[in-house]
């Protein structure tokens, strides 16, 4: 399914090398004046071709709204925006040789050889541009409600932000991987402050369930954790529990191991979530694969234009999906 959400409904469509990618956002409040300059800034944060750390594929990534807006203000009708693909090189891809680590193999099996294989088709990170359009609108509406959503890079491979020279170490790690025909992954943390207590729900409607599902829709995400995350498994209950107290008339917790969520419902503390991104699977090193056509083992080198590390461009995508989930829950 390409549609997600309960009170807001987001549909993402398109393929990496098709005419365009796009989104339909249904249920967004009417009468909202969109800040197009802020929207453009969000798109530029994710866009390719911005630095030596990303793919050289250049796309303007300018969303074209074809419904739901009149004079820059939302009408209450479904918002539909398309982003044209203007710089494709489909000849770099071969359907008979699935790229290791990609969805090429599983897509051809699932869709009986009919999947669009060009640049990963609908499985490509290119579709995250549409996610950012929706998320940018949600961030603007959340800001009006006093909620701020910000993500940042925690680590790139072994380079960690606790290092005073993290920016240098991060760039070196990525560039070293690129020069060796390889790639690296990393971790992004997103913090949402100002989230009111009491949103979310039971079990599958809980905020962890919703946010995890949304983040796993981002290509390359392989792990999600909240608050103390997997480290909480090493704690005792007396350490893991967040003491509750009253301060200036407000109920809060002294620590935030829960990441702002208890029982799937927000508790008023900052909502903290981290996600792990795998190394970009498209690398120029020789790798083992199969030849569908000749039914034999073979090898291949991935050609084309790819990120040696997707993490820097994924930061606004993580913000987008977290913002969508929060606004969706707040509209109940």
Write the layout of secondary structure elements.
Blueprint: E1 3-4, E2 9-14, E3 20-26, H1 36-46, E4 64-67, E5 69-70, E6 73-74, E7 79-84, H2 104-110, H3 128-144, E8 148-156, E9 159-160, H4 166-179, E10 186-193, H5 207-216, E11 221-226, H6 237-240, E12 244-247, E13 250-253, E14 261-262, E15 265-266, E16 271-277, E17 287-291, E18 296-300, H7 311-330
Antiparallel strand pairs: 1-2, 2-3, 3-7, 4-7, 5-6, 8-9, 8-10, 10-16, 11-16, 12-13, 14-15, 17-18
Helix pairs in contact: 1-3, 1-7, 3-7, 5-7
Q: Which series of helices and strands comes N to C?
A: EEEHEEEEHHEEHEHEHEEEEEEEH
Arithmetic mean pLDDT = 92
CATH class: Alpha Beta
Number of domains: 1
Walk me through the structure.
The protein has 332 residues and is α+β, with helices and mostly antiparallel strands. It has one domain (3-330): Chorismate synthase, AroC fold. The chain has seven helices and 18 strands. It has helices at 36-46, 104-110, 128-144, 166-179, 207-216, 237-240, 311-330; strands at residues 3-4, 9-14, 20-26, 64-67, 69-70, 73-74, 79-84, 148-156, 159-160, 186-193, 221-226, 244-247, 250-253, 261-262, 265-266, 271-277, 287-291, 296-300. The strands form six sheets. A five-stranded antiparallel sheet has the order 1-2-3-7-4, with helices on one face. A five-stranded antiparallel sheet has the order 9-8-10-16-11. It has a two-stranded antiparallel ribbon with strand order 5-6. A hairpin with a 5-residue loop joins strand 2 and strand 3 (20-26). Helix 1 crosses helix 3 (128-144) and helix 3 crosses helix 7 (311-330). The chain is globular, with a radius of gyration of 21 Å. The two termini are 22 Å apart.
């Amino acid at each position: 399914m390409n549609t997600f959400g309960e009170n807001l409904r987001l549909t993402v469509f398109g393929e990496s090398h098709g005419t365009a990618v796009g989104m339909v956002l249904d249920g967004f409040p009417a009468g909202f004046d969109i800040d197009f300059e802020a929207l453009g800034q969000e798109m530029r944060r994710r866009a390719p071709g911005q630095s030596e750390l990303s793919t050289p594929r250049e796309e303007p990534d300018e969303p074209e709204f074809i419904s739901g807006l009149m004079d820059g203000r939302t009408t209450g009708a479904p918002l539909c925006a398309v982003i044209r693909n203007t710089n494709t090189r489909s000849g770099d891809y071969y359907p008979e040789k699935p790229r290791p680590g990609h969805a090429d193999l599983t897509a051809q099996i699932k869709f009986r050889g009919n999947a669009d294989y060009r640049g990963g088709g609908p499985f490509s990170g290119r579709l995250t541009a549409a996610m950012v359009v929706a998320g940018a609108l949600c961030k603007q509406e959340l800001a009006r409600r006093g909620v701020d959503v910000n993500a940042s890079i925690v680590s790139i491979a072994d380079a960690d932000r606790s290092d005073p020279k993290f920016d240098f170490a991060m760039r070196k790690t990525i560039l070293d991987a690129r020069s060796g025909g390889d790639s690296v992954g990393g971790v992004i943390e997103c913090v949402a402050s100002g989230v009111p207590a009491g949103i979310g729900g039971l079990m599958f409607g809980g905020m962890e369930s919703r946010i995890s599902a949304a983040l796993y829709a981002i290509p390359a995400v392989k792990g999600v954790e909240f608050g103390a995350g997997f480290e909480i498994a090493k704690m005792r209950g007396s350490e893991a529990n967040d003491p509750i107290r009253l301060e200036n008339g407000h109920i809060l917790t002294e620590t935030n191991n829960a990441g702002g969520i208890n029982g799937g419902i927000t508790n008023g503390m900052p909502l903290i979530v981290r996600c792990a991104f795998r190394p970009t699977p498209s690398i120029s090193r020789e790798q083992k694969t199969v030849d569908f056509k000749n039914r034999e083992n073979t090898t291949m080198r991935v050609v084309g234009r790819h990120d040696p590390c997707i993490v820097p461009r994924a930061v606004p995508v993580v913000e987008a999906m977290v913002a969508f989930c929060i606004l969706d829950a707040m509209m109940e």
